[in-house]
Write a structure and sequence with these properties.
Pathway: Mycotoxin biosynthesis. With 218 residues, this protein is of the alpha+beta class. It contains seven helices and eight strands, in the order βαβαβαααβββαββα.
Amino acid sequence: MKAPAAPATEYVPVYFRAGFTGDESPYQGWPNDEKDELWQELYHHGVTLRISADEHKSLVNQTIRVPIAGYENDYFGGLDVFHQLHCLNQIRMGYYPRRYNTSMTNPDGTVSYDQWLHIDHCIESLRQSIMCHSDIGFNTFKWLDDKKITQPMLNDMHMCRNFDKIREWAFDRYVSLDNRRAHVENGVLVDYSSWGPDPDSLLEGVVPKGWNYTVDDL
């Protein structure tokens, strides 16, 4: 299998920030509009993109044609790195439910199954990805003689795929899925907008039997 984005992949050394004690990144800290925009710029045009028919042939899992006029011969998909960043951002926003309206609890104190399911899915996606890529960058330790304690040094060098190059490749192929009722059939774009209820309502999780968690269970 050859990934469509393989030509955009190169490896570069990256110095990881520790994430605390004065070595924070611009993505950290109390949320504000500027930080929200930085997070969105990481992935918002990489979740949905188009690839050519030739690139599609190399995929193990086949996908659908792009349901947008003018792109019917291309194929629709996205790079999982951007889905993972979306998931991480959802978890980040979950810590500030009033700012982002992301609370998992309903006004009556019960836990929203759909909100919980999204976060549970995101945590599982990130677990699988972390294990899949298994970063073998070596974390070192330092003895702090003045405090007589061992301190982990997490600001170490790692060998990484060049994220900026991959993001540029993906963003150049961005297509927006505004109409989820559109579908390419035999090379023709067909619009099912008048068929059935709102698409999002059909994709909501079916609450499992016995789901009765409340805010007291969190």
